Structure formats: structure tokens, C-alpha cells
Amino acid sequence: MVDADITPQFTAFKDALARRFLAQPGIADADAESDALDDYTSYLASEVWPSLAPSIRAPTYESRSEVPDVDSLSLNTTPASFADTLISCGIAEDPDAALDFLRKTLSDYIADATAPPPVWSKTRTSECEICEREVPLTYHHLIPRQVHAKVLKKGWHPQAILNSVAWLCRPCHSVVHQVSSNEELARSYYTVEMLLQREDIQRWRKYASKQRWGLRRGCRGPH
């Protein structure tokens, strides 16, 4: 698969496969410390993914009521390579057992993909998520509240993630709002990872991470 095809749902499916593999006797000891498991699950996920129904490839919390029951799914279009691989590795005894393994994996994946969003107030960290200092924190609305109505009207994000937050120290919080408008933050920088891709935020992070909290510049601290 090309990078453009790797959606959050595909990643969740691949992770569900990996968890199922690791639960098999002998797999954890053999592959957990190597790249083999990643290569293995990437290959199988890429083989199976195109054969799944569109409703299975795009479930979200908002669309959970539209996702079909896993037990009712027809898996007849699953590539034979999936069963062949599981059988050759001793994970499944026959094609029926391989499809049962896939059905259980899909159940795990759908549960993850349609899980409700976290209660953001309970995501508090002990360190600033930008400079990584253990200092007093504030919460930054990754999608600024001032543009929530516009975000919903334009369909930029589902309502479930509108109140997602990052825990930032006051200096880092101020910098974020200095480098981008509320609309730009909402459209292009609505995760900490996206913010950290900006060169100006990286430069600030490098500077801020070296600063001691509470020291006034020009004053000598204790030796």
C-alpha cells in the first residue's frame, strides 16, 4: 500500500492483527523483539484490506450504528494468501480456522475504531507536550473554541474531537497562538504531532526545553 492509503482505520486493523498474533503460543518469544512481526502484519493487512466492505474500512465513533455485525459478514472475498500464510505459520489449521481468526481480528478492530473519544480532562500529562518540562500546565484546545461553529459547518472535523486538548506550559501555549491563527490551528495543526512538524515550533521547543522554570533572566540562580 502507498502511504496515502494508510488511514487511521488501516493502522487500527494492522494493530489488531498484531495483538492477535502475539496472543498465539510461541509467537511473542519468536518475533516480539524483531521487525518480523511488523513486516508480517503489514503484509497480511495489505492483502486483506482491499477485500473488506467500505463500511468496514471506514468505521468511526460517529458511524458506529452503520457498521455491520462482524458475525454477519461474508468473508468469501478474502484472498487465499491470507489463509495460506496463517496455515504455513501454524496459526490456523485450515481455511475455515483462518477466516475465524480474521473475524475475531475484525471484531477487535471495529471495537477500537468505534470507541468513544477520551474524556479530554483525564488526558492530563505531567510534562508540557511541547517542551517536555515538568512545570505548571494549561490546556490548549487543539481546535480553538472560537471556530467550533465554523469547523462543524465546513465539516472539517467530527463533533466528537472538538474538545480535544493538549497540556502545555504557559509559554508554549502562548507561542502556539502566536504562530498560527485559530482557523489555521483548527484546519492544519489540530494535534500535537502536527504542531511539532512546524519549524518555528521546533526552534521554540529546543529553546524552551533548556530553560529553568521560575528563573528571571539576568538573575543568577543558586550554584
Give a quick set of tags describing it.
HNH domain-containing protein, 223 residues, mainly alpha, two-stranded antiparallel ribbon, 2 strands, 2 domains, 4% strand
Ordered list of secondary-structure elements with their pairings:
Layout: H1 8-22, H2 27-31, H3 36-48, H4 54-57, H5 80-88, H6 95-113, E1 137-141, H7 148-154, E2 165-169, H8 170-179, H9 182-188, H10 192-195, H11 199-208
Antiparallel strand pairs: 1-2
Helix pairs in contact: 1-3, 1-6, 5-6, 8-11
Description:
- The protein is mainly α and 223 residues long.
- The protein has two domains: 106 residues, no CATH class; 89 residues, no CATH class.
- It is built from eleven helices and two strands.
- A two-stranded antiparallel sheet has the order 1-2.
- The C terminus is likely disordered.
Kindly state the percentage of residues in helix.
40-55%
Mean pLDDT over all positions? 84
Instruction: Detail the poorly predicted runs.
Output: 214-223
What are the secondary-structure elements, in order, as H or E?
HHHHHHEHEHHHH
- Separation of the first and last Cα atoms: 56 Å
Count of DSSP strands? 2
The shape, in one word, is elongated
Q: What is the makeup of the main sheet?
A: 2 strands, antiparallel
| Secondary structural class | mainly alpha
Strand content: under 5%
Rg, Å, rounded? 23 Å
Protein name: HNH domain-containing protein
Organism: Ceriporiopsis subvermispora (strain B)
